[in-house]
Design a protein that fits this description.
The chain has one domain (about 5-310): Inosine-uridine Nucleoside N-ribohydrolase, Chain A, CATH 3.90.245. The protein is an alpha/beta fold and about 325 residues long. The chain has 12 helices and 10 strands. The strands form 2 sheets. It has an 8-stranded mixed beta sheet with strand order 3-2-1-4-5-6-10-7, sandwiched between helices. Strands 8-9 form a two-stranded antiparallel sheet. The two termini are about 30 Å apart. Helix content is about 40%, strand content about 15%. It has helices at about 15-25, 45-60, 80-85, 105-115, 130-135, 165-170, 170-180, 190-195, 200-205, 210-230, 240-250, 295-310, and strands spanning about 5-10, 30-35, 65, 120-125, 145-150, 185-190, 255-260, 260-265, 275, 290-295.
Length: about 325
């Protein structure tokens, strides 16, 4: 019998982070050890509260720890034009049902990694601040990390500046530390997450589950769709963050290409860009498995099965 993969989800909920929480908690191939939060889509207090409320909504009980309030250089910036004032607008969510961990995010990651009987996979779906701080503080635990599968970056253009994706732009120094760590890395950038679209057909499939959880998720995704339409002119919103987790659940969900990836730290117009050398022109060694093509049906089947599983337990 294959044991589930132990993971820690580091996130900044966020509509797509909320979807990642549900997938992590429900899929039997995954053992969700804990959730850590980082400022990104909203302030640290807001995103941590959102993580607690999503867990309350779906009856998920795992330790949750607050992490970095600011990036390694500069101050945090939020994304209210995309996720709303609360960072998770669009539906009424219940109040938290349990207290936060007394550990900081870095302390909780270290504790969970140290005490797990298997190597742990880290799934960062927000800025990489907590992960970089953990790697710096605990070099003795690097060999206890199976993968770092992160949502961030792009092989193409950005979504926050012309060439920088939001999560990497929010803390390029942290991303640089992670990409130079030598650990096994999987990057799910905009080039693949823009294939994970919450179309009207997908929303209808979720609605047909006919549970309180499913209805709430549809309300959240409709808000997300409206902001993506207004800001980016996209008719359907991309559900970015669960892609990084789905790849760990089922490797056949995405096609990966090993490539050298660097973070632009100093460019006047390109700070935070992920420089992905798909054709080997730099002569550098590959350091990242870059997700390129998504099996859309497999991805949404995983996501909808998770919503169904958690929602059916509420009846």
């Amino acid at each position: 019998m294959t044991l589930p993969t132990p993971i820690i989800l580091d996130c900044d909920p966020g509509h797509d982070d909320a979807m990642a929480i549900l997938l992590a908690a429900a899929n039997p191939a995954i053992e969700l050890l804990g959730i850590t939060t980082v400022s990104g889509n909203g302030s640290l207090d807001k995103v941590t509260y959102n993580a607690q409320r999503v867990c309350a909504l779906a009856n998920i009980v795992v330790p949750i720890a607050k992490g970095a309030n600011d990036p390694m250089a500069g101050k945090a910036s939020a994304a209210p034009t995309i996720h709303g004032v609360s960072a998770l607008d669009g539906a009424e969510l219940p109040e938290p049902t349990f207290e936060l961990s007394n550990f900081s995010a870095v302390e909780l990651i270290a504790d969970l990694v140290s005490n797990c009987d298997r190597k742990v996979t880290l799934i960062p779906t927000g800025p990489l601040t907590n992960i970089a701080m953990f790697l710096q503080a605990h070099p003795e635990l690097h060999d206890r990390i199976e993968h770092i599968s992160f949502m961030g970056g792009s092989t193409e253009r950005g979504n926050w500046t012309p060439y920088a994706e939001f999560n990497i732009w929010a803390d390029p120094e942290a991303a640089d530390i992670v990409l130079r760590s030598g650990l096994p890395l999987i990057m799910s950038g905009l080039n693949i997450t823009h294939q994970a679209l919450a179309t009207p057909e997908i929303l209808n499939r979720i609605l047909q589950l006919d549970t309180k959880l499913a209805n709430t998720i549809v309300d959240l995704l409709k808000f997300f769709a409206d902001t993506y339409r207004d800001v980016f002119g996209m008719p359907d919103p991309p559900v970015h963050d669960p892609v990084a987790l789905a790849i760990i659940i089922d490797a056949s969900v995405a096609k990966l290409v090993s490539a050298p990836v660097s973070i632009e730290l100093t460019g006047e117009f390109t700070r935070g860009a992920t420089v992905v050398d798909l054709h080997g022109t730099t002569g550098q060694s590959a350091n990242v498995d870059v997700a390129m093509e998504l099996d859309v049906d497999k991805f949404w089947n995983l996501m909808i099965e998770a919503i169904d599983s958690l929602g059916s337990k509420q009846k």
